[in-house]
Structure formats: structure tokens, C-alpha cells
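[Meeting: bench + compute handoff]

Bench side (C.D.) handed over the final construct sequence. Compute side (W.E.) agreed to return the predicted structure before the next meeting so the bench team could plan truncations. Sequence as handed over:
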Amino acid sequence: MKINFVSPDATTDYNLLYRWAKEFRKRIPGSTRGTQPDNQADANVFFNYALFRPGKTITIPVFTHREKDMPLSGIFDSVAKNCDWCFAQCQKTLDLLPPEKSSILSIGIDKQFLKKLRFGLPTQNKSSGRKRFEWGKRLQTDFPEIEIVFGGNILFKDMPAWYDSLDYVLITADNEGGPLGVPEGIARGKTVITTDVGWSCKYPVIWYKSYEELSAVINRLIIRDEVWDRGALQIIGIVRQLLKGE
């Protein structure tokens, strides 16, 4: 089975579409990439639908968005009607495509953007039942992609810089009068993830009620590289399905 990815070459305007095609080509053995369809391939996947050209092969355009005005909106609709399968980038786009021959394609990000997310607990790392700092340590074990740091021993004058070093502020206590970490973190432009304690109800925060809910929040925040692998398997699966005539 040979799959050809059709995309623009890497330029300032089209680098994104080129990168997508390049990432999938790396993950699908025997696949190729070019600016034109390959009539010798079993399938041509177009990044994006504007590059669609009908041919003798299986045609699968990737639909990013639909413009409101003609003629671009008409191109979107025409390509969706005439291709063999539609890959949508998201659910909103999927809703605009023929449901019998459409699905969402998992698309990731470039590795250069991946990093360990840094979560800061503005509390001392010592035993205190209501603080539940042990949840931070447990998160560190459950999610090796993140880093947990404590701010309780930071000098007051250094606290703004400490907040600036974080990606998220984390409050794990089940009983607080404040805590100050909520308004301080928000004042430094950080997202605060907290239990429903103290004055957190006055601020735009992410709430959770249990360690399980906290874990679910953290899991949604982590961007993992295997998204590309999942997308590659989706492409292979759809092409095999279409080759079988299913």
C-alpha cells in the first residue's frame, strides 16, 4: 500500500500544511510527499482540501475550516461531495461534512513545543493534613511529563519571579481562608487549579473535587507526541477500508 501526501512546499505561508504532511510521512512506511497527486499511489491525502484533484486513486482531503464567502465555501462543499473520504481537523468541521464518509484526523504539534509543565504549590513541603501536599508528589509519580515545585520557602521578594517560572498554580488544600496563591497567581497571569476553598469562588479558576478529578484535569493539559502516531494509524485504516471497498 502506497500513500502520497499532497501539500505545499515549506514556505512562510504554508509551513503548517507541509509539517503535517511531513509528520505523517515519517510514520507511514513507503509513503511519499509532493505538491501534486501521484497517480501510481493507492491513495492521495491532500493537506488541505483546496489542493484536491480528482484522479484514479483514492482521494482523501483534510478539511481545516469552511470559509463563509464564495467561491471558497463552494470549493469546500464541492470537494467534500467528490472525494472518497473526508478528514476533518475538529468536530465543528466534521459537522459540515457528509457523515457517511468523514472522520476526525488526529493532528499533533511539533516536538519543539513540548516541555515539562511546571506546577507550583504555594505552600511549604511539610506535613499538614489539610494542605494535602502529598497530592503534588503523587502527581509527579503518575505524570512524569510534569514537574511539581513548592513555594513555601521562597523569600517574599522573590515570589513574583517564582510565579513567573510556573505554567500553573496548584492548590490542593481542603480548607483555606484564602489562599493568597489564588489572587497572586492570577495577578501574574497564571491559570490556577484549585479545590473549592476560601475565596477561590471569586476568581476565574479551574476547580476539582478529588484527586481523580485533579488527575483528569492534568491529563487534559498534557500534550503528548503520540497524537501523530494515532493519526497515522487512522490514515492507514481508512485507506485499507476503502481499498477493500467497505
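W.E. noted at the follow-up: The radius of gyration is 24 Å. C.D. will use this when planning the next construct.
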